[in-house]
Amino acid sequence: MDLGIAGKWALVCGASKGLGFGCAQALVREGVHVLIVARGVEVLQAAASKLIADGARPASANVQFVAADITTAEGRAAVFAVRRDFDIVVTNAGGPPPGDFRDWERGDWIKAVDANMLTPIELIKATVDGMAARGFGRIVNITSSSVKSPIDILGLSNGARSGLTGFVAGVARTKLAAQGVTINNLLPGKFDTDRIATTVRASAEKSGKSIEEIRRAQQAQIPAGRYGTPEEFGAICAFLCSAQAAYMTGQNVLADGGAYPGTF
């Protein structure tokens, strides 16, 4: 299927690896020009080189990168100094650390909210009016399955990402929808990334079980019988950015291999 977005410009955050890289890769393969952002310059440069070398990338698709902390005003300024207007924005920032809420101070909460709620809002604010003026825009926020089914050791993430979800539910249903701009949230369940390694390690330490025991137990609870891959996550992201997804906005799209047990 031709997704109808070749030649568009996309900003993909947290794209040096994992789910962010999966999204960037899927968009590049559709002929989208991408500007990828992450903090680590060496890993980011390697990711850009991998995207450029991808045999499925059309030669016309440009790949640029900026090493910056997108959760800071300075980092966002560095990105917009390279390019101001984007047709597609994929927001993504590393999740807060796991732990017990009794151990967290106010500063821990502020940091989580700043990275996982306020940063996406700032990126939406900076780009959405230009999208509306051009008559096309796609914003995809990578959040977490925890906004539908909270995870006990991820209280910081549960709270901050739920705040973003509430904000998006309102702003996506304004006149932006009639101006060709959609805003959706993509909720990953358990994908085989560095993030899952962190949470598995925390669960292992809490339970006294081995990492392999935790991994096997988690995968056994997923109807698909496995963790997801960044590549298939990226494909879902690319569809949400497509011309065909123009009638989807304000949605929370859950990609979790069937793990969520609810009807709605």
UniProtKB/TrEMBL annotation:
Coiled coil: none annotated. It comes from the Bacteria. Belongs to the short-chain dehydrogenases/reductases (SDR) family. This is Short-chain dehydrogenase/reductase SDR.
